[in-house]
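Researcher: Structure for this, please.
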Amino acid sequence: MHEPKRLPKQATEEPPRQIAILVLGMYRSGTSATAGALHYLGVEFGGPLLEPRPDDNPRGFFEHLEICSLHEKILALLGSNWDDPRALPAGWHEDRRVLSVQPRIEAVLKRDFASARTWAVKDPRLCRLMALWIPLLKALNTQMRCVLVIRHPSEVAASLATRHGLSPVHSGLLWLRHVLEAEQATRGHRRAWLLYPDLVRYGRESIDALGRILGVEWPNDSTRAHAAVGEFLTGELKHHESNSFVEFTSPFASWLERLYDAAAEISRTGLQRMMEVANEIRNELAAGFDQPGRIKYIPNNR
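Model: Predicted structure, token format:
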């Protein structure tokens, strides 16, 4: 009798043991408030973090200084900056200079989050650098969850005008880049949309819903932690309120209104409609403004 041939054991992938929450959103859109709420629920943000600023963000930014610095380095290598509204070069994530920075980000993640079950990174630049982060988290065998925080572009523009002197058109184009690129990059991944007005109005309830949508069990799910979240978000103030698009010139006003309305109506019209609108605007933006030299960019020093 012949002994059955033994097949070699198949290598099995270790199930992911960590969850990374990426907080995505345009500057001045409520990402700091969202990250702060996650912090009170026990989500790790590593450190050191960017210090709070009494005249800007007194309760904290929750941005990892090293990671943000490396993000800015990548943009600089590509001839870009945080306020550059131009499209990044095609295939930028395969640029050897960019790839040389990736191990440094990986080293920070391994150092700061090795023992964390659930951790997060918040930086508006993430919206434009997801092509680097998605394979990085996959290589680290870490589950990715994404929160896309949306605020009315007029309110964002007013805030950026006060703090950095940006024009409405400049801010509007930045808003489009961040939202469109984050939306496209996170398709097919577990994600949640969070409107800043809902965060301000409903506070803790919005964060509770966030956990359910993302399928995340908060590390600190105690009554005291949830009370702290509620108290933290109660102080969230909207210094600039608007529902108008009049300060934006054509065609930006139409693009901004269509995209914001589609995001605001996801619960009613569905995610598919949001993606269709995003596709339309992305194509129109590329056709009208993404040719070399079409957008004149002067770095902001404020």
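Researcher: Any notable elements?
Model: The chain has one domain: 18-289. Residues 18-289 form a domain with the Rossmann fold fold (CATH 3.40.50.300).
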